Amino acid sequence: MSENELFEKESELMIPFFKRLPVTFKRGKGCWLYDFNGKKYLDLIAGIACVSIGHSHPEFISRVYEQMRELMHVSNLFYTEPQIRLAEKLKEISGFDKFFFCNSGTEAVEAALKIARKVTGKKKFLALENSFHGRTMGALSITWKEKFRKPFEPLIQEVEFCKFNDVDDFLGRVNADICAVILEPIQGEAGVYEVSKEFMDAVFEEKERYGYLVIFDEVQTGFCRTGEWFAKDHFGCSPDIMTMAKAMASGFPIGGVAVTNEVANKIEISEHGSTFGGNPLACTASLATIEIMQKENLAENSRDMGGYFRKRLAELGFEARGKGLLIGFDVGDAKALVSKLLEKGVVANNTSDTTIRFAPPLVITKDEIDFAVDALEECL
Questions:
Q1: Residue 69: enclosing H or E segment and its boundaries?
Q2: DSSP-derived 3-state class of residue 302
Q3: CATH 3.90.1150.10 spans which residues of the chain?
Q4: Given strand 346-347, what is the order of strands in its sheet?
Q5: CA geometry: angle 294, 300, 303, nearest 5 deg
Q6: Interacting residues of 354 by C-beta distance below 8 A, sequence separation 6+
Q7: What class, spelled out in words, does domain 59-295 have in CATH?
Q8: Which CATH architecture group holds 22-53+300-379?
Q9: What are the tens digits of pLDDT across the range 330-355?
Q10: Of 106, 179, 191, 340, which is the most exposed, with the fewest CB atoms less than 10 Å away?
Q11: Quick check: pTM over 0.85?
Q12: Bridge partner residues of 244 (DSSP)
């Protein structure tokens, strides 16, 4: 089937949820993607911050293949070793006590919301303006942007939104009715904006007063993306619940919820579940990803290459935000720039009309960053 035929078939057969860029990728290697015609592109999206260890990593492929030959799925009616081994590894790197596995970030958020309501006995959530937590009904309810929410209202109640990094606004909204405060330590879809230390301190100080839970949505920021295992590690604070997905298995579908023992002890059997969640194949993919990250020091590479990338962007006059290899910066026309970069062989992403986001594989090198910056300079 030719590429043009694929475009036509997509229009004929697929529900039109997505507006795609006009390219069909056939294979990938490391930080590079190749289209139908063999043209090479530097991948600065990584499947929206997912393909953490690079495309077609040989050890990852080998371990997933071996697990596929052995056992892929039996459901959570039974015990499986990969699930327990993954939980052990997550406890080691995250500091949380217990875990639940699902299939995506938005599923992880849904589970976190249910857990918070069950544990506290309260209903109301406080989220932040510009937040993005997913597109299912619960996750959408705590997502701020009206264009996502409006077509599907009424959503779950009660939800209130606080101005981003505005401590006074937060103090005016928080009260004893709050079930949980949910936030992204660095807002990715909003354009890569970091929660301030002052705001974060207020969230945890008021927690002691009002007894709500704190949920960190680390779906985009987890697993070395920001130069630490999780963005929470930059703040030195410990939420009660944390959601994760994306880079967790380098593109293989899996999500997870991490909780403290204090939270877990108030959860009962059959209050939540998943048919596919935590299946042996997904758990093996995640465990392989984490162990490769450790072996190849990808948290360190994320810090170093992220700093280098921001330095090179500054040389072009951009004020780049973010930590590690989660980078955002503003331009005049982000959509046009993404199209121009694609022509130059660089795959980028705009989160708004004016903001570009880079979230490349964590294995990216200085030479590859230089290639991207040179292409960007040619597009200006």
A1: helix 58-70
A2: helix
A3: 22-53+300-379
A4: 25-29, 32-35, 40-43, 346-347
A5: 140
A6: 330, 331, 332, 333, 334
A7: alpha beta
A8: Alpha-Beta Complex (3.90)
A9: 999 999 999 999 999 999 999 999 99
A10: 340
A11: yes
A12: 256
